[in-house]
Amino acid sequence: MQGMKIYLLEKHSRHGVDYQLFELKSAPTQGLTTRLELEWYREYQAMTGDELKDIILDEGIYVSWYGVQEPIEMYPKLLPPSWNEQDLCIECRRDTSFGSGLFVNRLPADGDFEIYNKDGEVIGTEYRDGYKCAECCAIPCDRCDDLIPLDEDITTMQVYDENDPEYSDDFSDGAHFVHLECLTAEEMDCFNKLNEEDK
Fold first, then answer.
1. What is the distance between the alpha carbons of residues 144 and 130, in angstroms, rounded to a whole number?
2. Residue 95 belongs to domain spanning
3. Using CA atoms, how far apart are residues 94 and 88, in angstroms rounded to an integer?
4. Per-residue pLDDT reduced to its tens digit, 42-79
5. 177, 155 in Cβ contact below 8 A?
6. 38 contact partners, CB below 8 Å, separation of at least 6
7. CB 44 within 8 A of CB 16
8. Which is nearest to 7 in space by CA: 69, 63, 61, 62?
9. Stretch 6-22: mean pLDDT, rounded?
10. How many domains, in total, are found in the chain?
11. Which residue of 46, 80, 105, 198 pairs with 134 in a disulfide if CB–CB is 3.0 to 4.6 A?
């Protein structure tokens, strides 16, 4: 549209930068910026589970504008295209490219996956190389079997000092990855003590 200009909203976090395109008649207003920043806080909260007040106070989480002159149809050439095969999560097949809402926290990944026909029968396998979204990076807790969100798993390394006689690869019951809330009272005491010493 004549008179319109493209602005790129950069959504920053401690894990990287996501992007969103806007076509506007004039420079972004403070009101628009504030609204979009709050939306980013809530999107980030949904991905990480962090407290909203902590996200707002974190200086590393913010939005900033970048104005560009190129027409909007140029962007597929300037930026990685959405729905590029490599940007699809290798597991759930959702788009993880910037602007998708799943760009932050995606991790490089690969693996072999079964291929099904329309009747749900396995007809082969295929190798996929690309990324996993944060949700698909969740792992089951060895004690409750519920999924542990990305980077929230607890192992013996976070509970015991390496010189502690209780320190080993697994907990005493054989569990390896557990939720914080699945620690026993004794393990929680050790966890709190160890992390207090690290501060």
1. 30
2. 85-136
3. 5
4. 888 888 888 888 888 888 888 888 766 555 444 444 44
5. yes
6. none
7. no
8. 69
9. 76
10. 3
11. 105
Helices then strands, each counted (H, E), the chain: 4, 7
Distances (CA, A) of 148 to 23, 116, 159, 178: 39, 28, 17, 7
CA distances from 17 to 1, 6, 103, 116 (A): 28, 18, 8, 35
Distance, CA of 98 to CA of 96 (rounded, Å): 7
Tokens describing residue 113: 């996956």
pLDDT digits (tens, 9 = 90+) for 158-173: 998 888 777 788 998 9
Q: What is the pTM of this model?
A: 0.51
- The torsion region of residue 160 among left (phi > 0), alpha (psi -120 to 50) and beta comes to beta
Residue 74 and residue 12 in one domain: yes
Residues 132 and 146 in one domain: no
3-state secondary structure of 194: helix
Q: Which residues of 36-49 are buried (b: 16+ CB within 10 A; e: fewer)?
A: bbeebbeebbebbe
Domain end position, chosen among 78, 104, 124:
78
